[in-house]
Amino acid sequence: MAPTATRKLISTPIRIAFMHRGLSGGGTEADLRRMASGLAARGHAMHLFVAHPEPVPAGITVHRVPVVRGNRWTRLVSFALLAPRLVARASWDVVVGFGRTPGQDVVRVGGGTHRSYLAAMAASGKRHGQGPYHRTILWLERRMFSPTGHRRILAVSKRVAHEVVRDYAVPPAHLQVVYNGVDLERFHPARRGSDGARIRAELGIGTRPLCLAVGSGFARKGFDLLLECWRGDPPADATLVIAGDDERLAAFRRQAARAPLAGRVHVLGPRCDVEALLAAADVLCVPSRQEAFGNVVLEAAAAGVPVVTSAAVGAAELLDASLSDAVLRDPLDVEGLRAGIERALGPGWDERSRAWRELAQRHPWTRHLDELEAFFLEVASGV
After folding, report:
1. Are residues 342 and 230 in the same domain?
2. How is 300-316 classified by DSSP, letter by letter?
3. How far apart are CA 198 and CA 23, in angstroms?
4. Number of domains making up the chain
5. Tag placement on the chain: N or C end, fewer CB within 10 Å?
6. Are 141 and 117 contacting, i.e. CB atoms less than 8 angstroms apart?
7. Which segments of the chain have a pLDDT < 70?
8. Which of 336, 343, 345, 287 is nearest to 316 (CA)?
9. Distance from C-alpha of 277 to C-alpha of 200, rounded to nearest angstrom
């Protein structure tokens, strides 16, 4: 979806500014930190304009954007207005917005469009998008996807690129798809004997099959569907472990503490040791209603953990024919989800584990960084 180069690319280090509200949180923030650190290590001058400047990656210059304190609408609007003004005080080769800023050279779309997110939630009976906060996000999306809001768009999957074109009539030539990559050493099958055993002992699971779900925003991730699945007989008598953050985390924990989920489901909350959790897992479940990419899919693959995911997850585009039965065509099909988990935990687990590891090896983080750097050099060159 990228235009053909018509002039020589810049090959010297360039000055790049990233705009995003924070450095900690979910997958987008983790991507931002790793992208900035990786590009800085290659000699590029990396500057981050953020409202919450911690943790600060090594070798990066961080500029704090003084957002107005208040509710989430106030913070959203003040960052959207202030960040581009602060960036405009200096000269840059490329300015990258990670969403919800009205003007930049590149919009990096790592979470899909908000319009598609609201539609997916409405289709599953979830009430979202009724207040000024959601209406303002939609207004900001219209601005940043307008001809004056960007020069290029970086999408993390074809699914995301399709959403942008469909929802905002952006010319396909403006878009470039660069899939995320994975750290093949941090996520490795060799961890099962050490980290995996430790996590199982910590949770008191023993040798029972462990189904893991990781992520923030439980409704979008489809974790309520997993609870529904476990209210009957647990698939393959497995224990469900949910790790992540959500405004309804306490409610999920209360549900998990009551029959029939008590003893079958563990809701851990946010964790920084995802690699250890995956080392303990026998299957990863990603039944998302909308998911731009889903880094945890590649992380599980690198750890040799089979995955059950939905067709609404961007990372599902990477699966070849040998892994296609891991994809649920209907994210809301609870019985299909149950069958997929039982299939993943059934005979042939070792062969499936090797196949998932081979998939991850085709998508190392270094390859992602190579493609990212080439794209930013294109943009800096005016291509």
Report:
1. yes
2. HHHTT--EEEETTBGGG
3. 29
4. 2
5. N
6. no
7. 1-11, 126-129, 383
8. 287
9. 9
d(CA 187, CA 195) in angstroms, rounded, equals: 11
* DSSP calls for 230-262: HHSSPGGGPEEEEE---TTHHHHHHHHHSTTTT
Is residue 361 within 8 A of residue 184, CB to CB? The reply is yes
Residue 9 located in a structural domain: no
Task: Please report, for residues 96, 105, 363, the alpha-carbon distance to residue 178 in angstroms, rounded to integers and kept in the order given.
Answer: 15, 17, 11
Query: Residue 196: helix, strand or coil by DSSP?
Result: helix
Is residue 256 in a domain?
yes
CB 213 within 8 A of CB 286: yes
- Count Cα atoms within 13 angstroms, Cβ side, for 77: 12
Place of tokens 């235009």: 3
Here the tokens at position 188 are 């490795």
Which residue type occupies 144? M
Q: What are phi and psi of 226, to 5 degrees?
A: -65, -40
Backbone angles phi, psi at 9, to 5 degrees: -75, 145
Asked whether the beta carbons of 116 and 312 are under 8 A apart, the reply is no
Which residue in this structure is represented by tokens 């590649």? 298
| pLDDT reported for residue 278 | 98
Residue pair 143/103 in contact by the 8 Å Cβ criterion: yes
pLDDT tens per residue, range 297-310:
999 999 999 999 99
Identify whether the C-beta of residue 284 lies closer than 8 Å to the C-beta of residue 278.
Answer: yes
